[in-house]
Design goal:
Length: 412
């Protein structure tokens, strides 16, 4: 998407606005499948939580993806988008047994990461195929909040608790058809990933009726020019070879599954904002924009760096700015960032806004959530309307309360 087109989108649909390039999503999907093309049975389950717009889900389905879901609401979104239940895996954490049972009745693949829930579910539904999420105790990920495979993580069943798992499976006679792990997001060192994979292979040997092994995802994408990323091609070559060897050892072909989210959609997204004011203080020049962490929380939550470009003045002289939002708390997008000269009314574009941006947006300060636009082969399509005041108050219930000790104010 060229600057001219992004400026046209900001003009046509207003700002702030999320814009996604479907061609980049498709290229990323093909890049991943090509990296593992020597594996006979490969399954890519798109992580809905990254970007859950139903038009994006439908596009993923056309590419051939299944879905990775973490809530029953995401499951229903997938079904509404036309996915068959068998192509949806449900990997929740800390949800009720009732929610898991409800999703199982729909026919989705269940993934359980809790010994107690595993035993309860296996006792009541021994015939239902279940995948088990293992915690390999491997520290991986770009931030403590997105590192989910270490020993103190709430996710997964510890590899040290394998005997407990086997006891539950033996006692309930439940059907274990998959083994799963997810170590974290922004994984750069593929050797760490391969090390965790060996733990998963060793665990898989305990189960004789597996149909798939799910290696999660968390591949790092570049956030700025020259940034490093996961070498998917090298990982594909090494893991594919090892996976094919394991299938021979196991005695039957298995499906290799991944559940990428950020890898598929992050680089496809641009978030466009308008500069409300340029404010000079004693030490800083602030570019104040018509958004905040209510629309893009990742810089404040994870310390993530999104490249910011002034697409209204791309050839201007570079100066240093702190780009901040309009929320009544500190909501800094960038500190002392080199950006081409900014004037009030300019449009700034935040890169890597496809993953965990709209899906983590809120109505904090009673602000509206922005519109979403999907660009495919150069054509811009509105895929979510900008919210209005009616959306803010739609589910609120007004009641009238009169305090018991209400006193009349007396003006002297």
């Amino acid at each position: 998407m060229q600057n001219s087109q992004l400026l046209e989108i900001a003009k046509d649909f207003g700002s702030p606005v999320y814009v996604y390039d479907a061609n980049i999503i498709e290229a990323q999907y093909k890049r991943l499948t090509s990296a593992f093309n020597t594996v006979k049975q490969l399954k890519i389950n798109y992580a809905v939580k990254a970007l859950s717009n139903i038009s994006v889900l439908k596009f993923m389905k056309q590419l051939g993806a299944g879905l990775d879901t973490v809530s029953i609401q995401e499951v229903h979104l997938g079904l509404a988008a036309g996915y068959k239940a068998k192509d949806i895996i449900f990997t929740p954490n800390g949800v009720s047994l009732l929610e898991i049972e409800t999703v199982a009745k729909l026919g989705c693949q269940i993934n359980i990461d809790n010994l107690s829930i595993l035993e309860q579910f296996g006792t009541k539904h021994p015939e239902t195929p279940v995948c088990i999420r293992i915690n390999p105790h491997v520290m991986a990920g770009g931030n403590t909040n997105i590192s989910v495979g270490h020993i103190d993580s709430k996710f997964g069943i510890s590899i040290h608790q394998i005997p407990h798992i086997l006891r539950i499976v033996e006692n309930t006679k439940m059907n274990i058809n998959g083994i799963h792990m997810h170590t974290g997001s922004d994984i750069l060192d593929i050797d760490v990933f391969l090390y965790a994979s060996e733990i998963l292979f060793e665990t898989a040997k305990n189960f004789k009726n597996l149909q798939f092994i799910d290696f999660g995802s968390g591949f790092k994408v570049p956030y700025k020019t020259g940034d490093i990323e996961t070498n998917i091609e090298e990982l594909g070559q090494k893991l594919s070879q090892r996976f094919n060897e394991f299938c021979k050892e196991y005695g039957k072909p298995l499906t290799l599954a991944f559940e990428p989210g950020k890898f598929l959609v992050s680089e496809a997204g641009q978030f466009l904002v308008n500069v409300n004011a340029v404010k000079q203080t004693t030490s800083t020049v602030f570019a104040q924009v018509d958004s905040g962490f209510n629309h893009l929380i990742r810089p404040m939550l994870y310390g993530s760096q999104h490249e910011i470009r002034n697409i209204s003045n791309p050839e201007g002289r570079e100066r240093f700015y702190s780009v901040v939002g309009y929320i009544c708390e500190t909501d800094t997008f960038a500190n002392n960032r080199r950006i081409t000269e900014i004037n009030e009314g300019d449009i700034l574009a935040f890169s890597n806004a496809g993953a965990y941006c709209y899906s983590m947006a809120s109505n904090y300060n009673s602000r509206y959530r922005p519109a979403e636009v999907l660009v495919y082969n150069g054509q811009a399509h509105l895929i979510r309307k900008r919210e209005t005041f009616e959306d803010i108050i739609n589910n609120q219930v007004e009641i009238e309360l009169t305090p018991k000790d209400k006193k009349k104010l007396v003006t002297k």
